[in-house]
Amino acid sequence: MGRGKPAKRYSQAGRVHDIIRLIEARHGMTVEELVEETGVTRRTIHRDMNVIHEAGYPLVSEWQNGQKSYRFLTRFKDVPPVSFTLQELATMYFLRSQSEIFHGTPFAEELEGIFRKVRSVLPPRFAAHLERIAGAAIPLFQGRHDYTGHAETIKQVRDALVHQNRLTVSYRASGREHADTYLVDPYTLAFYKGGLYLIAYAHNRGAFRTFAMERISSVTMERERFELPDDYQPEGRLRDAFGIVAEDAMAVRIRFSPVVADSVKGRIWHPSQKFTDTKDGGVELTFSAGGKLEIASWVLSYGEHAEVLAPVELRDMLHRAVTGLSGIYGR
Question: Cα(231)–Cα(241) distance, rounded to whole angstroms?
Answer without folding.
Answer: 19
